[in-house]
Amino acid sequence: MVSLADPILRMRRRKARKGQGADIIQKIAMVMAVLLAAAAIFAPLLTPFDPLGQSLLARLRPPLGFERYAAGHLAGTDELGRDVLSRSLHGLRLTLALAFAGAVIGLVVGGTLGLVAGLRRGWVEDGIMALVDMQIAIPFTLVALLVLALMGSSLTVLVFVLGIAGWEQYARIVRGEVRRIAAMPYLDAARTAGAGPLYTAWRHVLPNLVSPLVVQFTLALSNIVILESTLSFLGLGVQPPQPSLGSMVGLGRDYMPTAPWIVLTPALLIVLLTFTVQILGDWLRDRADVRLRER
Fold this sequence. Notes:
transport, Peptide/nickel transport system permease protein
């Protein structure tokens, strides 16, 4: 005779195994995040060669384990004899710095506009949400290409472009949370007690926005990494000889048939970086959302 509890037990065991698998992936992502961050921060100490140093006598040398390997160049050299590993680590450092700066700008701009839209109803809210709808409707990659083509490819312009890449997501999240919080009884009590709009926003609204904003910041970081790599690959991002992961892939694509290692290392770092940040973003979202945590 089959007990009714048996299917429930089997379901719980499947969920437990699934949870263990997810925990392993998250732990791997955390370790990768620490290693990538350490590699980016300490890149000047870890790189064996000058990332801009050229040696035509050592050009297009393969990585360790292949014939014609040049001593010390573990990941090989590029078309100008520059060390691929050194350039990749410095490129990781610059790509992460640009992505972080862009994500912070998007957080400040979008969070401020979303807060204003949530607290100030009427034409102010309608105008801000119209800008949000426009940003969502137009493919941002085309906007970025247009801005960089007209204003140049300096790092200042690139940071500005990356900063406005995802501000609309922050604005929508903050506006929705503010409108939800505004209906809470404790906010009415604060207003009745004489609290002004700035004090109410700082003391009662902003603390409740930290969790969703941290999750969105993490997810936006990986998207900005991909955008920066795309723009640099197309030649509109970081300009040579300064290395970034996207520009290294773009410059090395012509040598793919004969020297694929030029592209392999920076492309692998892009994949690992976006994978790690995305997994951590999903984990933070699950931890922050009570409904997902209870499933």
